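Records of this kind hold a single protein each, on a pair of labelled lines. Below, a sample record shows both lines together.
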Amino acid sequence: MLVVLRVLFWPILWLAVALSTTIVNAHIWIDLWEWYRADPVDKTFFLVSLYFVWAFIKYEARFTFAWFQSRNLVSMKVILPRTDTKLDQEKRTEKDFKEKVAVMEQLYRALWEVRNLDFWQTMYFWITRDIRISFEMYVEKGLLSFYVVTHPRLVSIVEKQITAFYSDAEVTIEKTPEICPKGYSLVGYFLKFQKNFSFPLRTYELMQDDPLNGLSNVLSKMERDEVAAIQIVLTPAIRKKWNKLTKRAASSGFKGKKEGIFAHIPVLGFLMSGFADFASSSTNAPGAKGGDSFVRMVQPEEELYKRMAEKGGMSFYHASIRIVAASKGTQRAVELTNNIQVAFNAFKDLYGNVLVNKRMFVDFLPHVLNGPIIHWLWKHRINCFLHKDCMMTEKELAGLYHFPDSRYNKIPIIQWITYRVLPPPPDAPTDGILLGYNRYRAVETPIRFRGGDRTRHHYVIGKSGCGKSSLISWMSRQDIANGEGLCIVDPHGDLIEDALAHTPKERAKDIIVFDPSDGERPMGLNLLEAKTPEEKDRASLDAMEIFLKLFGNEIFGPRIQHYFRNGCLTLMDDEEEGATLIDVPRLFVDEEFQKYKVSKCKNAVVRSFWEHEIAKTGQREKEEMIPYFSSKFVPFITNTTMRNIIGQPKSAFNIREVMDSGKVLLVNLSKGKIGDVNAQLLGLIFVNKVNMAALSRADVPRPQRKRFYLYVDEFQNFVTDAFATILSEARKYELALIMAHQYIGQLVGKTEAYGQAGTKMRDAVFGNVGTIMSFKIGAEDAEYMAKEMAPAISDQ
């Protein structure tokens, strides 16, 4: 329609100017006057009839156009997040809800201006009167949802206005629910003013509680299979006559006058008003002057006329208010609509106006006929057809329909958004792996993760089934495709299968799969594989921390730790044969083997342990301590799979070489195949070996260190001090850690060398990690994470 106006406007304008010039220059006016004088009665009747015919044609044309345009209407669902924090509850006051409703008043005021966006929009509205914005509430399946329906060309404007006043709102294009399911009975009414439109309704400013609470409370009493809805179709008023009529009514009220029956007829109203003013100018009332006499009235009436005058200065809408309900029985549907009507009595003003319900045409029209008519009007959002509209202002509409706020609207049926949508950072990176897309106010922005930022480590937390593993899988796929080096430690096996399925052919030679369940070709993994004295000390400490993680400080106490560390250092000094964890208990039960290994030991302190401390230990003490010590290795020695893996003195691959050459190491530690304890031990070994390999990069200049990514799913199973070292030091060696788990409590425990139970690991994570990503978490964790996410996100 706007395109047609732009094309035809100038030709029509030139034609109108030409016709006007012709009429002015011709004697047509004299001829018309002579024609009228010949038979004034008949000619007057003819002109009046012509006016009504023109009005009818114009009305039908606009109605047909509105019906045609209704097929293109777009519905938007508006959902807001919960913001009812403890701080909000403490600050809550009675007037706060009025401030929130006042926001909706400003929204209505802003939307009223859409009629004058530009010249063409103004012309379009002046000709068609078709600017419809429908505000609707639906109750379906026990949930109350809010929708806004409008023309396609206004969708962007309306959406931006909503999000401007409700910055946390999520506005999505979504079809409205069906108000009359098949087999249901539909009952509907429209609401109209009982008095003249100039009399105001009771507004939210005069209420002590949010009117939405009363309405939603009525709707909460519905059965789950019942449907109810409220529709308010708005069209901005194009003329100022409604303001003038309201102000005149207020002025007349202050003067004690009553408007006559001709007051709203344009010509007769003006003439009758002038005659009344002339007649009243002769009054003898005290203080009267030229008919401007004021009468004394009770205070409520005086307040009424003040509010009426205030209403005259606001923006008017043509409003069609409809309420419908659908149920399996007609009587139940009638009961539901009556309950909704009762809720609207909250807006009744004793001296002002009130909304009353009416059926189409006449009140005695059967529901079986009335229902389809109002259903059709509802479906097409036709404004002011077959019933009288309500001339309402933004303040009245704000009380009738406004979006909920969790601080004041506690009814459980209201549908809240379970998350908060934040805008993307203005300096969002354009390179790096793709995490996903931010959809904020209909704008989609790709969110990427730079490699440099990733070396500051990535922490992911969330309940089981929230998508943590899917995120890791998505990130690792991109790293593999980009030629990066990485290691995935997976305690379930699904990540490994997914990574293999998405590995490009050109990277097939870079893949190393460690699968301990493969009994035919077991791959060796030796934690005690070290060369320099520093590496040996590091390996022995890491091995001790692993057993502390497995057994705890109460079982693997200080004395056993002392035996274990010295045993590891003794075995590692034999560089020819190497050392394995399987050989550690053998040192204490096989004297010949012990003497052989001690003879090759170069560490004077360790040799002193054997020659003085162990040699002087009594036989009884040995019989008590050594079996207790050896029993900790039995689960791994007696298990064929584990013995074949950790019993090999040389590992099947060098993790330092894997890191430096950018290989892909996939560690499948499926607990269902190898057992929980075995999977935990191997995972701990891998994490510690990666950490040792990263620290050994100190001999390579930093620019030459190739970045390597370590993915650890369910990393609480592998938490030792090695993780704290990675978080604090590994960044310098280009090792990026990506770790995921379920809840923070998994990071609190006895993980230190001497059993100091506490929060060291938790503090290391939140003190050093650069990127925190939170999925759905528990209440206790939410309270903790709120401090990390503040002020953008709260614990709600």
